[in-house]
Amino acid sequence: MAGGGGWRVEFVKSCGSLGDFPGDGMPEAALLGRSNAGKSSLLNAIAGQAKLARTSRTPGRTRLLNLFEVQYAAQRRLRLVDCPGYGYARAGKQERERWGELIETYLAQRANLRLAVLLVDANVPPQALDGEACAWLRQRGVALQVVATKCDRLSGNQRGQALRRLEAALGTAPLAFSAVTPLGQAELRKAIETALTARATPPTAGR
Ligand SMILES: Nc1nc2c(ncn2[C@@H]2O[C@H](COP(=O)(O)OP(=O)(O)O)[C@@H](O)[C@H]2O)c(=O)[nH]1
Ligand SMILES: [Mg+2]
Question: Rounded to whole angstroms, how far apart are CA atoms 116 and 145?
C-alpha cells in the first residue's frame, strides 16, 4: 500500500444508509461536490494511490457513500466519506432526490462528522448549487473546507481570478488544488488532519 504524504489509505465499504456505517468514534471528513468536480482524482492523489477511487468519464454513477480509512500517524486513524456527486442533470429526478437524501441524512445526523470538504472546479464559474451546498452546511454548523480543483489547467493570473471569484461566491477562501501536480495536496491532507485531530480516537480494534 503506497502512501501519499504519510497517509496509508484503504477502502472499507460502501454504505446505502446511515445504518451501514461503523458504530465507532472515528472522526470523519466528507468529500462533496458536483459530478465531475474531480473527487475521485483528488482522493487518489491525496492517498498516493492511482486506482483507489475509480475516476469515471460517466459522471453520476456512484450512488453509495464510499468509506476509506486513513492511517496518518502511528496511532491515528480517520475516515474519508466519499459522497455521490450531486446535481448531475442526466440522472432521473427521483434518483437525484434519493442521492441527495442519503448525503443530507449523513451530513445532518452523523456524530463522527468533523469536516465537509467541498470540491469545486476552478475552471468553471461559481455554480448556484455549490453556493446552496455551502449555505446548507453553514446552517447546520458543519465545518467547511472548499477546494478549487483542476488548478493546473489555469495560468497564475487565471488561477488567482478564479480563486477570488469562488471566494466571493461561496464566502470562504478555497484551497487551490491539482490532482496531477503536487499543488495543494500536502495542504489538504494537513487541513483534514487538523480538523479531525481536535478529538482524535484510537484505531479501530479488531480490524
Ligand atoms: N487537468 C486536471 N484534470 C482533472 C483533475 N482532477 C480531475 N480531472 C479530470 O476531470 C474529470 C473528472 O474527474 P473525476 O475525478 O472522475 O471526477 P468526479 O466525478 O468528481 O469523481 C476526469 O476527466 C479527470 O481526469 C486535475 O486536478 N487536473
Ligand atoms: Mg468519481
Answer: 6
Residue 103 sits at the vertex; the CA angle it makes with 93 and 20, to the nearest 5 degrees, is: 115
Domains of the chain are: 8-197 (3.40.50.300)
Q: Is any atom of ligand 1 closer than 6 Å to the C-beta of 129?
A: no
pLDDT tens readout for residues 8-35: 999 999 999 999 999 999 999 999 999 8
CA dihedral 123, 30, 135, 102 (to 10 degrees): 110
Residue closest by Cα to atom 14 of ligand 1: 38
- Counting ligand 1 atoms within 8 A of each CB, the residue from 55, 90, 121 with the most, and so the one to mutate, is 55
Compute the C-alpha angle 100/101/107, nearest 5°.
90
Residue whose grid cell is 477511487:
53
Q: Is the C-beta atom of 153 inside 6 A of ligand 1?
A: yes
Q: Rounded to the nearest whole angstrom, what is the distance from the C-alpha of residue 50 to the centroid of ligand 2?
A: 13
Segment 134-144, tens digit of pLDDT = 999 999 999 99
